[in-house]
Amino acid sequence: MGQLRLDYSSYSGIARPRKGASPLIGQVHFNFGEQAARLVFLAPESALSSNALVALLDHLSWESSNRGAFRLLAEIDEDHPTFESFRHAGFSVYTRQNVWKLSLPETSAANGNGHWRPLHSIDQHSLQTLYHAVVPPLVQSAEAIDKRPLHGYAYISEGELLAFVEAINGPLGIYLQPVVHPNLRNPEEFLTSLLRQLPVVMGRPVYLAVRDYQSWFNGTANAMNGQSSTRRVLFVKHLARQQRVAVTSSLLKVLEQHGTEPTAPLARSQNGEKKEK
After folding, report:
1. Distance between CA 147 and CA 168 in Å, rounded?
2. Which listed residue, of 54, 93, 168, 181, carries a Cα 20 to 30 Å from 211's Cα?
């Protein structure tokens, strides 16, 4: 019962397939200031194949929208039987990923001329430039970082930000979501030096999410004796209809309103004085 949080940022819904059947429970969580809510869990596993799942997902989407969310994100195994139910409920796939459980290195590794440091507010412009250059538009439309604060680490090489990692700390471990420029060399040394920066407390495990658009990190995690999860599918359901809005250019508006007025032509006389014609 401790998982059924009753604060306003979380909502738990119940759907009963039929009289006498086991109820289906789902929960969503939404942090104020962000644009996307997240599906936390669906239970029990034995009831997920019922027709009530689509109705429950619609209900959770409605409650997420009432709390101000523009999107609802979900994550399931690629071969999970509920895949089609999510599609029927209006969800669409925006990427796939593997999550690796990594072991901390015993010794630090040098990584060329680059170094890690915590993300600062002055990194915002460089961070967004790297994000929009590396991450596909389909993923950006689901997980835009422009409207939410990021906590993690930046990798600086020769004065340029080549990678950043969002770090989410919890009681069960540290979850890392990297965005890395493909020009980066020696990814194993790069990842080893990152793990040495993490403040691991009480032996919490470290998890690394590797998206399809950065699949070359799977080989690096495997070479570091990482343990991979099953392949996961990431869903998004847009809760607000996109509408194009015309934005008038302030400079163009000024130019259109301010017209030029002709003046009387001037001619010089023989003694150098100006006279109007």
Report:
1. 17
2. 54
Whole-structure pTM value: 0.79
State whether residue 51 is helix, strand or coil.
coil
Cis omega (within 30 of 0) on the bond before 44?
A: yes
Q: What is the CATH number of domain 97-233?
A: 3.40.630.30
Task: Dump pLDDT digits (tens) for 20-55.
Answer: 778 899 999 998 878 999 999 999 988 888 789 999
Query: Which CATH superfamily does the domain covering 1-90 fall into?
Result: Gcn5-related N-acetyltransferase (GNAT) (3.40.630.30)
3-state secondary structure of 88: helix
- E-only strand ranges, 63-197: 71-77, 92-102, 114-118, 152-157, 160-170, 173-180
How many other CB atoms are found less than 10 A from the CB of residue 29? 18
Widest pairwise Cα distance in the chain:
111
Residues 6+ apart with CB under 8 A from 168: 151, 174, 175, 176, 177
Query: Residue 69, Cβ neighbours under 10 Å: how many?
Result: 23
HEC per residue, 20-38: CCCCEEEEEECCCCCCEEE
